[in-house]
Amino acid sequence: xxxxxxIILVFQLTGEALVRLFNLPIPGPVMGLILLWLALxxxxxxxxxxxxxxxxxxxxxxxxxxPIVVGAMVYADVLIEYWLALGLGIIISTLAGMLVTGMIAxxxxxxxxxx
Amino acid sequence: MLDxxxxxxxxxxxxxxxxxxxxxxxxxxxxxxxxxxxxxxxSPITHPLLISSSAIILFLTLLNIDYDTYQQGGQLIxxxxxxxxxxxxxxxxxxxxxxxxxxGLITTxxxxxxxxxxxxxxxxxxxxxxxxxxxxxxVPKSVTTPIAIEISRIVGGVPSLTSVFVVLTGLVxxxxxxxxxYYTGLSSPVSTGLALGTAAHGIxxxxxxxxxEIHGAxxxxxxxxxxxxxxxxxxxxVKLFSIIGLF
Lengths: 115, 247
Hints:
Mean pLDDT of chain B: 90
Largest sheet of chain B: none
Number of domains of chain B: 2
Structural class of chain B: mainly alpha
Distance between the termini of chain A: 45 Å
Number of strands of chain B: 0
Structural class of chain A: mainly alpha
Radius of gyration of chain B: 20 Å
Helix content of chain B: over 70%
Shape of chain A: extended
Number of helices of chain B: 13
Oligomer: heterodimer
Mean pLDDT of chain A: 90
């Protein structure tokens, strides 16, 4: 578990370094994700070594967002003043995005199945 | 006697709450309780994130503890979002073969959903009188926090406000998403995973992982892709909005 966690952190840092080096518009951890995926595909990192810690982190993914949600208390004034615009904007746009993605994914899949 | 107890309490409270262990244990403790409540009364509105963060806000407000004090511990939990993002490589790798056969479907559906969510959010907030600052902070709200914060800064939004919108978006997606996709007939594992990851980033992916590993793998991939697409598209979209006079 400890070895797996160290590997993941090193990949995150390598990602951060590459992003800065090449001035990429993506965050370091996402670059780390791509690098770790590549390393798994190439066999440089063994799945069993990182799997346990990855499962622990991903099983509790939602917990990691709690402190950020609590941060909403700092913006209570703005959130209350513009609650309708923000509420409608967030709800409708999220459903619209899911609808479009889901429709394309579903119908594309049918096309594949028929082919 | 009562005075003595109260005075002792307040004199201890300050130094204790400033310890990182306070923020961490408050968060973990209330999250565990929230998970129990959700298991006992399974419903979208008992989502553990919603229950635990409301309870923490209430607790901090009642005891007059400010957010920065809580964050001494809170930031230690937020720190793990980095390694957790890297860890998404594992379900992705396990499903690599399936995914590589569907790259066209995946990129098209994720790109379309990402751009739709961004445009609809901007138009509605503007339509209902939101300030330019709010509209710009709304642009990257569908993607995972670390990406969204960077984009917000680049397009001229308020990063911390963006992080609040990001989490609210994730909650809406995780709470309403599965039922919405079910009633619209779009609830296959691939469709659910892609839709949740595209529109509701990590919180949606957390929800997708509960549905199954395939859901989770597609969701994690969609979340990463949506982040990339938003990072590249947001500056152009904002320029376009200002040209057509939205701001």
